[in-house]
Amino acid sequence: MPIVKVSNLDKYFGRLHVLKNISLEVAEREVVVIIGRSGSGKSTLLRCINFLEEPDNGMIEVDGISVPATHRKTREHNQQVHDLRLKTGMVFQEFNLFPHLNVIENIIEAPVTVKKMSKEQASEIGMRFLEKVGLAAKRSEFPARLSGGQKQRVAIARALAMEPRVMLFDEPTSALDPELIGEVLNVMKQLAKEGMTMAIVTHEMSFAREVADRVIYMDEGCIIEQGEPEKIFAAPADPRTKQFLERIR
After folding, report:
1. Share of the chain above pLDDT 90, in %
2. In terms of DSSP H, where are the helices of 64-102?
3. pTM here?
């Protein structure tokens, strides 16, 4: 059974039809990488999966929590969205760390506030994930004293501290200087090896080729083609995929 299931998803921004009848499944422990031109709907798709953007039509299911698209914000719908978000962790292009909190305080904020954990329990979990991303020694530093790569690794640890079933990455290296990209990708590679289910939007094609179980190419709000990395990169079936890959090489 898929751990993520997107069914007949539509999203509009005004008259602009951004996602067009998208259906997608992600299996447990699978790493799916979504590629495509800017404006193709990749990031919007990720944001709809955890309802940071409200879909206009369709259904999202994550680990057994099904939430239909609706314009009626009932108490039941809001609770469904809350439960679904507890299953997903998201890492954005920007780090979105609280500047007035140090590293460990940033990480435990959500477990304490949302999951009602004690600070002691949340700190124990937070330190475990700080060690995983190689930043245990930075627990008391404030974000202003961290490099961009370190901030993004803290953001990954913060998402992991909620112990999600699925991790969503929206171009996590696009705001980083080139020399800092590798340290973030290495953390993501390790998560993949450990079996974390992930959906990743990225422009890092060599990373996609190495880590992905499946690559999806999107264009103009549609899934154009998908398959194993070697198939997509070496012999794309659709001319739009081929043209995109030739342009970025």
Report:
1. 94
2. 75-86
3. 0.94
